[in-house]
Amino acid sequence: MFDMKAIEFQSQLENGMIQVPTECGLLDGQDVRVLILVNEVAAKQTVPSADRHSIWKRTEGAWQGELVREAQGEYPTRLEIE
C-alpha cells in the first residue's frame, strides 16, 4: 500500500490549470494524486471568466515607452472603374 496524506487548499481554475501553494510542502517532480471538488455555490456566484481575466485588465499599465507610428509609404494608384 501507499502512504498518503491529504493537503487541502482553495484555488481557482485559470486556463485549465490550478495553482498549488508552495506552503503545501510538495517537491518539484513529486508524484501526487489529485481529487478536484468543485464548490458549486461559489461557481454560480463568480464573474464570468471573460470578464475576470480580460486582456485589458491583465495588460493595463504594462506599456513602457512612446507610441510611434512609422511612415505608411505610398499607396498604389488603382485603375478607375468604368
Question: Keywords, please?
Answer:
single chain, 82 residues, mainly alpha, 0% strand
Question: How is this fold's topology laid out?
Answer:
Layout: H1 40-45, H2 49-52, H3 55-59
Question: Can you walk through the features of this model?
Answer:
This protein is elongated. The chain has 82 residues and is mostly helical. It has helices at 40-45, 49-52, 55-59. The chain has a domain at 30-54. The protein has three helices and no strands. It is 18% helix and 0% strand. The protein starts with 39 loop residues before the first helix and ends in a 23-residue tail after the last helix. 0% of the residues are buried.
User: Residue-averaged pLDDT, rounded?
Assistant: 80
Oligomeric state of the chains in view: single chain
Number of strands: 0
How is the main sheet built?
none
Q: Tell me the span between the first and last alpha carbons.
A: 86 Å
Backbone shape: elongated
Give a short synopsis of this structure.
The chain is mainly alpha-helical and 82 residues long.
